[in-house]
Amino acid sequence: MLTAGTLRACWPLGLAFIHPGPTGLILVIAIELGLITCMGVFNPIFATYRLQQLPSDRVARTLSAWSITSKATIAAMTGVWGLLAGLTSPRTAIAIAGLLLLATSLLLPRHDRMPQHKNADQAPLERQTLA
After folding, report:
1. What is the pTM of this model?
2. Cβ atoms of residues 88 and 80 within 8 Å
3. Which of 13, 36, 66, 99 is such that its CA lies 20 to 30 A from the CA of 26?
4. Residue 4, by phi and psi: left (phi above 0), alpha (psi -120 to 50) or beta?
5. CB contact burial 42-54 (16+ within 10 A = b; e otherwise)
6. DSSP track, 90-120
């Protein structure tokens, strides 16, 4: 998870170095391919990790909250970064966003923080079938 999370944060910084012409287009295609691939690996792993931290009776509520906050955050950050790009330049705003994304890999869990349950009745449903 740590490797995939770090790799997905590296690609957006490359968008600050895009230039006009066919080579710039190829660079965009390569960056987007790498970004989409890494996110396709990381997102399901991280969602699974976060869901395993929850009691089973709170999963539906948590998924709803994630959906709402995700959409609100995307809208807010689009506005903030549009304002930043208007005040500076689009390339500067992209570079700042890329650098901030690199820092997000420091927030990823470094080891397993799964709670240890005393008996199988307290374990989530997935682990009850394995016990």
Report:
1. 0.67
2. no
3. 99
4. alpha
5. beeebeeeebeee
6. HHHHHHHHHHHHHHHGGGS-SS--PPPPSST
